[in-house]
Design brief:
Largest sheet: 3 strands, antiparallel
Order of helices and strands: HEHHEEHHHHHHEE
Shape: globular
Helix content: 55-70%
Distance between the termini: 37 Å
CATH class of the largest domain: Mainly Alpha
Low-confidence stretches: 1-6, 224-233, 235-240
Length: 240
């Protein structure tokens, strides 16, 4: 009698992880509309684990629930973005500083590889792949520093930020990664304060792109402006 419950829980976690990864990595742009029944059919599961995962994402700020048939990736309000950015400046600054203290040669090679892959993706015009490499670079910093609680906090912030960053990544181009070189150099030199400063510059520079292109919702229309029925894909299945 216990096993079906465990199976459902496991499915809900799997569905959550797939949807969360799609949000964090920018596969689902702001305004994308999701339907629980369609997601269940596409993933080959019942509606229960999908509904559980979606409600968890709503509670974590990654999705906006307007009705059972209208669940959207929200547009981020400017004030909310500014608040998240301020938190990221502190948390990711700490992560970079700790990474500089604990990074091994292999860790530095990992960061350099992510940066090369990001450059390759941008040169090829593959902005979604570039965004994935960008996200992995940022998440690698708390992992290198051994701060997994902090990484979890950042994951929640990136649930909300990922779609927005995706919408501006093409316009930002190399601005979105140029400070990563300074981050790697500071970590290579075990210079924690310089690593903190470099990742903060990265967040601020990328943020200016998002602010200037007007991708944020105003407080008056908020998330309900929605952007229509956006299109996207989640780990290989359609959300059209």
């Amino acid at each position: 009698m216990v096993r079906p419950s465990l199976d459902k829980t496991g499915l809900a976690v799997e569905v959550y992880d797939r949807l969360a990864n799609a949000l964090i990595s920018g596969e689902l742009p702001p305004g994308t509309r999701l339907k629980i029944r369609d997601l269940a059919d596409q993933m080959g599961v019942s509606v229960t684990p999908v509904r559980d995962a979606v409600l968890r994402l709503v509670n974590n700020g990654g999705l906006l629930f307007q009705s059972p048939r209208d669940i959207r990736v929200p547009l981020l309000e400017r004030s909310r973005y500014i608040e998240i950015r301020a938190i990221r400046l502190e948390l990711e600054g700490l992560a970079a500083e700790r990474a500089a203290q604990f990074a091994t040669t292999q860790d530095i090679l990992l960061l350099e590889g992510l940066l090369r892959d990001n450059e390759t993706a941008l040169a090829a015009g593959d902005h979604l792949q570039g965004l994935r490499m960008n996200q992995r670079f940022h998440f690698a910093l708390p992992e290198i520093g051994g701060m997994m609680i902090l990484r979890g906090l950042l994951e929640n912030l990136w649930l909300q930020m990922g779609p927005l960053i995706s919408s501006g990544y093409r316009d930002g181009g190399r601005v979105m990664i140029e400070h990563h070189y300074s981050v790697v150099e500071a970590i290579r030199n075990a210079n924690g304060p310089a690593a903190r400063a470099a990742i903060r510059e990265d967040i601020l520079a990328g943020g200016e792109v998002l602010l200037l292109r007007g991708a944020l919702a105003s407080a008056s229309n908020g998330n309900h402006s929605g952007g229509g029925t956006g299109k996207g894909s989640v780990a290989g299945f359609s959300t059209r």
